[in-house]
Write a structure and sequence with these properties.
two-stranded antiparallel ribbon; four-stranded antiparallel β-sheet; mainly beta
């Protein structure tokens, strides 16, 4: 079974104008998801496969590795925990920089 997590966006939320950016000598160029607006939208990980890291009666933990690529030249590890409790569903997101240098990253949640 292939898992996806389209409820969030990373390593950037929202829109990346012209799909380009630069930081500390590294530059990225992402494909435009909104060509009419010249934007790359909602990062990269929502399109990648996620793996089941663990599960219990009321908890599921998913993980995803974003490997360095032209759109984002750093490596990140994303983890999402979905926990169902008496008060409802809680979602916890964590991002770990697996690169050798600092990497810019933001996680954004998208309510579905």
């Amino acid at each position: 079974m292939q898992l996806r997590s389209r409820s969030g966006s990373g390593p950037w939320p929202n829109r990346l104008g012209d799909g380009r950016y630069a930081l500390d000598g590294r530059s990225g160029r992402a494909a435009w998801d909104e060509p009419e607006r010249r934007n790359a939208i909602h990062g990269l990980v929502r399109w990648l496969p996620w793996r089941l890291q663990s599960r219990a009666q009321n908890v599921v933990v998913l993980a995803c590795t974003l490997f360095a690529q032209p759109a984002y030249p750093w490596r990140l590890e994303f983890v999402l925990e979905y926990r169902l409790g008496r008060d409802g569903l809680a979602v916890t997101a964590a991002v770990t920089n697996a690169d050798e240098v600092p990497a810019p990253s933001v996680w954004g949640s998208i309510p579905i």
